[in-house]
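Could you show me just one protein sequence together with its fold in token form as a worked example?
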Amino acid sequence: MVESLIMLYRVTVNEKEEQLKGMQVAENQWLTLEDNELIKAYISGEFAAFECLYNRHKGGSFRFILRQVKDSTSAEDLMQELWFKVVSNIRQFKGESKFTTWLYQMARNLMIDRFRHLEVVSGVIAETEAREEVASDWRQTADTDLVQKRQKAALSRCLQKLPKAQLESFLLKEEGNLTRSDVAQITGVSLEAAKSRLRAAYNELRTCISRVLGENDD
């Protein structure tokens, strides 16, 4: 009898372990899917797929809004409105473009509707990493934390000085991780114009950051 109970217990434990593994697999399976696949799964009734989609893009979309509206409360309101519109209109997404292009176009339109003019102003810029060309020229091995803090402060200061068209293009590229073609589509300009704005933004940032860091060394 005791041996039978022990065997039953072991079977029960094994079944629970398998169930937990199955739940973990079910959660992790969404992480490997592309955005369009997550959308199809969500439309089919898998809410966890949308949760994964939201977690994947909430950070970038919030920073994109925050850095242009300055006020965190307004940014949070716009963020809620943005994702409410995503949920409301998700069935209209046909997958002809990337989800991020659709998402950031919607975010941009919301800000234009809210403020009538897309006012790119100096904002609350936090936890920013200077990436690609902007950061690479100032990477150092010694005093890494201090160097990174100085670079972040310099980038924050210099972003505030960019013309609004350049800043918007830069944020779409960096926060949205969008291609130059996507940036052109969202901002309604030609590909060459988008490339020109991005080149100008990176050049302005390089010059400004170099100057600011040089001032700090004096």
Notes: The mean pLDDT is 75. The chain has ten helices and no strands. The chain has three domains: 2-31, 54-124, 126-218. The CA atoms of residues 38 and 46 lie 9 Å apart.
